[in-house]
Amino acid sequence: MSYRIKRVAHLTGINAATLRAWERRYNLISPGRTGSGYRLYSDEDVAMLTRIKQLTDEGLTIGEAIARVRRGCAPLPADAQAPAIMEVRDSLRDALLRFDRMEALQAYERVAHLPPERRSEEVLLPIMRELGELWERENCTVAQEHFASAFAREKLVQMMAELDTGAASGPEAVVAGAPDEQHELGLMASAVRLAGAGWRVVYLGADLPLEDIRRVVRARKPAMLCISVVRRQSADTFLELATELRAIAPRETAVVIGGAGIPPLNGSTPQGVRIIGSIAEIFTAN
Predict the structure, then answer these.
(1) Span 206-234, mean pLDDT?
(2) Structural contact between residues 260 and 230, judged by C-beta atoms closer than 8 angstroms
(3) Which of 32, 62, 98, 107 has most Cβ atoms within 10 angstroms of its Cβ?
(4) What domains lie within the chain, and their CATH numbers?
């Protein structure tokens, strides 16, 4: 969605004059413009500004807050950190396959300094994808996959608790799994990404009936409804789900759907629904 500066000031608690000053002084964001020249801010802009406001309220200078947010949102650099991350993933994966919790915890501790979204998206989720591929090739047992999933879920729950300070004042996102969806790790990682960017997250978990989702979003009118689809579906089944989600969500709510179960759509996405290929795209409009 797009917001004018008055609405952004209301959502973030930062007055319009300060927003303009930060834009000039720190090159923080580059809002779009309407045909009349009015600034237009994206969901990602609002989330970033909200997080910066939260950090300055906690005592950081504006420069320190901006630096921290930029570090947290930065992608994994192609430098010496990349091999270290890969080594940790290999060590953690092998420990989980051996049911060695102590060694798994020691490996995970090596990336404890990273922001939560990087721990989830660059460490835990890639391991779980790899184990899923091993299971499909019958090189990994159900017990091994379940043990690893339990470990990853534990860490994601901790991240969500770490980020849920109760102080977030940014846009609200309702995060839920589609009906009959039992997989939850990608959904939790999405919640971590949103919370880390300053969003207020209402996390509903996996396998939500559409009627329950409808009740929540109609009552709360969030800025975003984020849905995960992991179980493989036909294009017709998925398009029916996407259409129903758009119909039950308020007009002002962006409907975002991601997950490995989304089939090829050949450009037939329902109007008003965003399809994302990765969690990193959660703020990017189609």
Answers:
(1) 92
(2) yes
(3) 107
(4) 2-73 (1.10.1660.10), 81-163 (1.10.1240.10), 172-281 (3.40.50.280)
